[in-house]
Amino acid sequence: MPKGTQLLAALQERIRAAGAISFCEFMALALYAPQWGYYNRPQLQIGRRGDFITSSSLTRDFAELLTEAFVQMWHALERPQRFTLLEMGAGEGQFAEGVLGYSQATYPDFFAALEYQIQEPSPSLRERQRQRLAPWGDRLRWRDLDTACEPIVGCIFSNELVDAFPVHRLQWQGDNWQEIYVSLNAQGAFQEVLGPLSDDRIHEYFATVGIDPQQQGYSDGYRTEVNLNLIPWLKDLSEHLKRGFVLTIDYGYPAQQYYHPARCEGTLQCYYQHRCHNNPYCFVGEQDITAHVDVTALTCYGEQFGLATLYVTRQSLFLMALGLGDRLVAQQQSNGNLLQALNRHQALHQLIDPLGLGGFYVVLQGKQARLNLPQLEEAVQGFAQ
């Protein structure tokens, strides 16, 4: 039986047993069911061969530029003998490969202190990471946040991770929220039904991010999402981080924009073979399902758990502050292979495209650590203007 069929059968069995399941549970199974979920499929591809492109899969420059930030974090922490860099969800290992290779060649003192850790739930991706990163095996280990490990002094990094956390989908009806559940119609196909909220924390969430739904003027049928999974995730990060930084990069909005009455269909998106659509009930297990990140929730809950907000900016400004502009100039002046030069030039511009990757949010949080660097201050000031 094809794996997609197995996942459909498992979902249908779960729904028949429960009558209906929350969309959050549906999304969790579609993405993360063992063996059959989208991210646990052995055939998962990231990049041009897959369903979506990330900054890490686009060009090695992304990892090298962020290495500049990691080196500055190391200095801000007074150059500890061991600097742990924990990457959450490392894909096929391109980012780790870039950081390890660049730091080894360019910053040997930092490289000597660097311990690279990866938290990766997918067995197939872990195996690909091990193969790609074999040259640095003595500097690398895989970590499980569910088990006790030595506290981290360094940085916890993620890129396009939080957008894939399963979300609760809500619909405004009358003067209150209803939650969207998934059931089956008479033919066994997925259908949506409304019901009461499955988690009381949803009300607390809106209060935390400063949104009073009763004052927003929502029309009946207004839909949105709430990402409750980022709350325990941030709590875990803070508990594992003894001293250092949390660097999160993802697409999203501040709460006031995210929950604006005009955003009446929410932000849920699906990606299948580089095509974007909004139907999560087709290609189940074969497509990515995402929702934009509430940046306000990241900072508010982070502060509750002891993570101070240091910087909130856009990827374009952040990377320019780390030297992307200098790379563009140097690349234009090089006399190398013309096709390679054109491809790299295009990739660098994609990293800072304000309508694409460059528009992603960069959130830097700190625990018992500050990062007062002029070039990053300029990036934040430019964003504010």
TrEMBL record:
Under Pfam families, the record lists:
Methyltransf_28
Q: Which InterPro entries match?
A: NDUFAF7 (IPR003788), NDUFAF7_sf (IPR038375), SAM-dependent_MTases_sf (IPR029063)
Record's protein name: Tlr0417 protein
Species in which this protein is naturally found: Thermosynechococcus vestitus (strain NIES-2133 / IAM M-273 / BP-1)
Task: Please give the superkingdom of this protein's source.
Answer: Bacteria
Q: Which UniProt keywords apply?
A: Methyltransferase, Transferase
Which GO BP terms apply?
A: methylation
Q: Which GO terms describe its molecular function?
A: protein-arginine omega-N symmetric methyltransferase activity
At the highest ranks, the source species' classification is:
Bacteria, Bacillati, Cyanobacteriota, Cyanophyceae, Acaryochloridales
